[in-house]
C-alpha cells in the first residue's frame, strides 16, 4: 500500500516540479497568437476553454492503454510502478508537452510535418506512413475492444456485429463533424465518468485496505519474467506512448494560449499515469498474485479483469458504471485516431477540409481498411500496435530534442528518454516473434549499436540545423484575435 500511495504522490509532485521546469525551460509566450485563432476554420481550428481541452486531451490519449497495459504489466509485480512513475514524469509528459507546444508554434502541425521540418524531408514521408498505420491500428483496436466489453456487459443479448457497426457509425460522425459538435460537447461528460470510475476504484483499494504488493529488492526482478524490453512495451499509455504525438496536435489547434499547455499536455499525461497506477495496483492485489491474474486473463482476457476489479471494489451496480467508464476510454480515442489520420493525410496532400465532400474523400478509405482489419485477431493487432506506438514515441522525442538543441535549450530532457525508448524498441524488434527472432543477448548488443549510430547521426544533423539557423516557429503577424 505504501508503494502505491507514494507513487501517486510522486506523480502529482512531478506536475508541480518537473512539469514547471519543462514549461519554464521551453519558454511560453502568452502574447503569441495560437493556431486556434490565426487559422480558425470552424472545423478543426477553433478556440475552446482550457478545461474542455484538458478533458478532451485526456480522453484522446487514454484509450485502453492506461488500463489494459497496466493490467498486463501487473504480471511483473510492483516494478511496474517504477516505470509508470518515472516514465510518466520524465518521458511521457515531456513527450506530450513538447509535441503539443511545438505543434502550436507551427500552426498546429502534426508529427509527420514536424519530423520533416526538424529531422529531414525523408523523415516526413516515413513518419507520415508510420503515423497513418499506427492510427488505423489504434482505431481498429479501439473498435474491437470496447465492442467486446459492451457485448460481455450485456451478456451477449446484442450481437457483437451490431455493437461494432454502432461504434463505427459514431466514429464516422466524430471524424467528419466540426470538433465542437460531438467531441467538444460530449467529452467533458465522458471525462467525468472516467475520472469518477478510476478514483472510485483507487479510493476503495485504500479504504478496504487491499494488500497491494510493496516494492522490495526481492521482487524488483520477477522470476522468469525479463523486464527489458517487454515491460516498456506492455505498459505504454500509462508511461510513454507515441500515440499521444498523433493526438496532441488536435488540441494544439484549439488551445487559446501557450500558458495553458502545461495543464493540457503535461498535466493530462500525469492524470493518465494515476489511472494506470490504480489499475495496475488493482490487478496485482485482487487475484491472489500473478498466478490468479494469469488464470483470469486466460479465461476472459483483460475485459474480464476490468469487470471483476470494478465489481469487487465498487459493487455490482456502481461497478457496472465503472466498466462503462472504461468502455468510454477506447471509444474516445478511436474516434480521434481516425480524425487525426484524416487531418494528417489532408495536410500531406494539401487538401483543405472546409467541405464535407473533401473530408469524406479521405475518411471513407480509412474506414474501409479498418473494417477489413477487424477480422484479424486482436492479440496480433496489439503486438504490432505496441511496437509501432513506442517507435513513434522515439521519433517524437527526437523531434523535441532537435527543437531544443537548435534553440540552445536543455535538449537532454527529450534526448535521454528518446534514446532509451529507441533502444528498447530496437531490442524488441530484433528479438520478437513478429521481428527478427534473434536471441536476447544478440538483440541487446545489436540494439545498442543501432541506437548509438542513430544518436550520432542526430547530433550531426542537429549541428547542421543549428548552423543553418533553422526557423523554429512559423511567423505569425496577426495578434488581433488573441484571447483576452
UniProtKB/TrEMBL annotation:
InterPro entries, per the entry: CstA, CstA_N
GO cellular component: plasma membrane
Bilayer topology: Multi-pass membrane protein
One GO term of the biological process aspect: cellular response to starvation
Keywords, ordered alphabetically: Cell membrane, Membrane, Transmembrane, Transmembrane helix
Domain of life: Bacteria
Localization terms from the record: Cell membrane
Residue ranges of the TM segments: 6-22, 81-104, 125-146, 158-179, 186-207, 227-243, 264-287, 312-332, 360-381, 387-406, 411-430, 442-459
Domain CstA N-terminal stretches: 3-163, 294-426
The UniProt record lists the keyword Disulfide bond: no
Family membership: Belongs to the peptide transporter carbon starvation (CstA) (TC 2.A.114) family.
PANTHER family attached to this UniProt entry: CARBON STARVATION, INNER MEMBRANE PEPTIDE TRANSPORTER
Name of protein: Carbon starvation protein CstA
